[in-house]
Amino acid sequence: MTTDPSNLVEGAPTEVNPEKDVQLWIGPQHPGITGNMSMQIWVRGDEIRLGRTHIGYLHRGFEKLIERRKFIQAFPIVCRICVPEPDTNEYLLAASIEELAGLEVPEKGLWLRTLVMEMSRLAATIQALGGQAGSMGLGLVPNWTYTLRDYILDAFEELTGGRVYHMYTVFGGVRRDMPDGFKERLEETLKLIEKRLPAIDNVVFDNAVFQKRAVGIGVVKPEWVDEMGISGPTARGCGLPRDIRRDFPYLKYGEIDFDVTTHEGGDIFARSMVRRGDIVESIKIIRQILARFPMQGRFCAKLPNMLHWEVPKGQTFVRAEASRGEMSYYAATDGSDKARRVHVRGPSYVHAMSLLERMLPGTIYSDMTPMMVSMQTCPPEIER
Amino acid sequence: MSKDDEWPEIHGVPDVPGWSHPHQPPAQHCYLGEGSKPEQLAYQEAFAKLKNWFRANSLSVLAYGTGCGSIELRPLATSRFDYERFGFSTQGTPRQANLLILSGYLSIKTLKRVIRVYEQMPSPKWVVGLGSCTINGGMYWDSYATMKQLDLYVPVDMQIAGCMPRPEALLEGFAALMTKIKAGKANGYIDYTRRLDWYRENQKKVIKDWDLPEYNW
Amino acid sequence: MTMKAFVEELSARFEVLWTHAQRDDLFQFGVPAVQAVPLLSYLKAHTPFIQLTHYTVVDWIEDGEFQMTYLLTDPVGRRALMICARIDRETAEADSLYKLWPQAVTYEHEMNEMFGIHFPGSPRMGLDFCLEKWTNTPPMRRDFDTVAFVKEMIPERPGREFITTRDYIGQKVGEKRLLHDD
Fold first, then answer.
1. Using one digit for the tens of pLDDT, what is the confidence trace for B115-142?
2. Residue closest to B186 by CA, chosen among B157, B155, B152, B156
3. What does the pLDDT look like over C36-70, one tens digit per residue?
4. Which residues contact A291 (CB under 8 A, 6 or more apart)?
């Protein structure tokens, strides 16, 4: 059997020899696979010849469900597309339909949306850094990072009412105002995270075992980035400063001062360093938001009756920067009270399918899991 | 051999045909005739209680995140909520685990793999359904790709409601499961062996791509 | 140059049916289906719009057509073009992009399974993507009724009652105080 001729790199094997190559299924139940997807690989000795990603284990038919619900009823559905970072999806649905309907969000609502987006990015990036260390056997670091994420989830619970799924963003703004004393408590949490970063440096980045297993492994070439649509830490780890918050500014990112972290090399180590830089930048951004936050004003625009709201016909495309990369929504409406088509494109659509299949030939089998984790593959956003 | 209908349900000891009971003297099999019932020996109930106590306090959870609810399983393992003080631990393969936590909805494709994994686990084994999607389909009630009632396909011993349940709710559910095991009532795995035909019929109705072995309990 | 002027230059080479400026950085225009792949190859080779960010299809069942939507991004210039082409719903065939962009294989694989569109030459046509051994109509088409499918094929736990929003609110506030008529 042969591979897709479109996805070849120089020198990669094109055929599988059934007498020499062993087919392995790394199935959905495996402690090394992030989430619930499976890999079918052909191995010769220790070296992978070809790999193919199989998904569909988390398919719920989201887009069909969204088409059957009124616009406001789609929020609880949409935040369950990506579990560690649900706010990006909520914002994108709200932004796309608001653009088609011509709805304006007041200032305070924009600031609150930016705060929630950045908090969820921070939580997901911290979790990813821990997951990367855990995939190499440094089991201490995931425990730290899950605890830090728990503190951020406590802040979410105070602000929005839910730990994991917030359903906080609605059309025209957000659902609730910021409670009193929230700023001080969030600042304490940010200080805790900053205090833990040197320890993570010691255990992870200065660790000879991690460096041996991460430097030079899972290399993504810079010329693939623009062609394939790679984004996020995977693209910034190749040295290209691609960040949707800088390139296509949305919400209040145009007014906030932050740097885009890049690192040369394109390997797992570079991507982890980019994530570490992202954590520092996210803390900086949240501090600026809390300092410039307007205490007065409406947090949500005056909405018409949401159960009978009809949006004029049109189509649009909105993007946001999730912790993994560029998440984008394509929305098409037809003038009725339900959406005609909402198509979710997660960053893992390219990272875990085409990019992984391109990177796998020639790698050693035990490097496959760290590679997959370094791109932060999140299967539910591939198959929704 | 005596008919197994006449054997009473001894506390904690399953009366499945073909099982050998190591703590029961083999002489009892031969000397029973029609219409006689074996006496429950004094130590059997105490032994069964001890066995159940050991089992309930050392559950090994299979690391399988089938759905959204698995995001709250990792915080459980950290020291804030700490399920290890109840004796829980995590295993990587189904052959070494005895608790299967089905966290959330199951698409039909995953259901086939879950059945295979469940059948690979050695007895005694228990299943916990997390979230409201295992109870009645949850918010994906009109989805063409998810199953709506987990009870029909795999025997469930404890259902924890919520969407998704907090770690404290999970701990409460686990404590209820442990109580149930200690009382000898969590016999879903025995139910699976007895009513395998019924489960298979339900499974084959939804899973179109059936290629699992027929008799594997 | 502005996007509008850019597309006007393109219309000298390719037939542009309609244009619409959605935002400052997003410009939409429609082309006939046969011109889609030549236009995209030209854009990839000779203009800065080199990245295929999104590739999807919308089912306009009342017109009997599928609308293929291609989204190209200029990562350096920070702008995007949305190109729409309509194909016939009955034949449901469109040209494949996999030789231009490798990630198009996944998009076409999904559209093949979800909508039943055939892309001649694209690898993985006819293979399973998310669903196993699906023999019904492709599920994302508008004529596939998912509730009827669920009622027929997947057993549910009895006891769930369905109540419309109007009746639920009517129970709470009294029928006379309801303002709208459905």
1. 989 988 888 889 999 888 888 888 888 8
2. B157
3. 899 999 988 988 888 999 989 998 888 888 999 99
4. none
Does residue A383 lie within any of the structural domains? no
Region of residue C104 (left: phi > 0; alpha: psi -120 to 50; beta: else)? alpha
Closest CA to A279 of A259, A265, A264, A252: A259
A146 vs B78: CB contact, 8 Å cut-off? yes
Q: Do A114 and A229 belong to one domain?
A: yes
Q: Do B206 and C153 lie within an 8 Å CB cutoff?
A: yes
- DSSP assignment of chain B equals ---GGGS---TT----TT---TTS-THHHHH--TT--PPPPHHHHHHHHHHHHHHHTS-EEE----SGGGGGHHHHHSTTT-GGGGT-EEESSGGG--EEEEES--BHHHHHHHHHHHHHSPSS-EEEEESTHHHH-GGGTT-TTB-S-GGGTS--SEEE-SSSPPHHHHHHHHHHHHHHHHTT---HHHHHHHTHHHHHHHHHHH-SS--S-SS--
Give the CATH fold of the B62-206 domain.
Rossmann fold (3.40.50)
3-class state of residue A311 by DSSP:
coil
A8 φ, ψ to 5°?
Answer: -85, 150
Q: Has residue C114 been placed in a domain?
A: yes
In angstroms, the CA A380 to CA B129 distance is 20
Question: C66 to chain B nearest CA, in Å?
Answer: 22
Tokens matching residue A35: 């989430």
Closest partner residue to B148 (CB to CB) among C130, C149, C154 is C154
In the three-class reduction of DSSP (H, G, I as helix; E, B as strand; rest coil), residue A342 is classed as strand
Every domain of chain B and the residues it spans: 62-206
Tell me the residues of A at the C interface, defined by beta carbons under 8 Å apart. Answer: 4-7, 55-56, 59, 61, 63-65, 67-68, 99, 226-229, 242, 247-248, 305, 307-308, 314-317, 319, 326, 328, 330, 332, 340-341, 343, 345, 349-350, 353-355, 358, 383
Nearest to A65 among B72, B80, B142 (CB): B142
CA B134 to chain C, closest CA, distance in angstroms equals 10
Q: Tell me the mean pLDDT in the region A145-159.
A: 91
Give CA torsion, residues C43, C47, C51, C55, to 10 deg: -30
Residue with tokens 């010329």: A223
CA A50/CA A359 separation, integer angstroms: 9
Domain residues for C24?
3-130
The verdict on residue C107 lying in a domain is yes
For chain C, how many structural domains are there in total? Answer: 1
Q: Please judge whether C156 and B136 are an interchain contact, meaning their C-beta atoms are less than 8 angstroms apart.
A: yes
Q: Is the pLDDT of residue A35 over 90?
A: no
Rounded to two decimals, the ipTM of the complex is: 0.88
pTM for the model: 0.86
Q: Which residues from chain C sit within 8 angstroms of residue B137, using beta carbons?
A: 156-157
* CATH code of the domain containing A282: 1.10.645.10
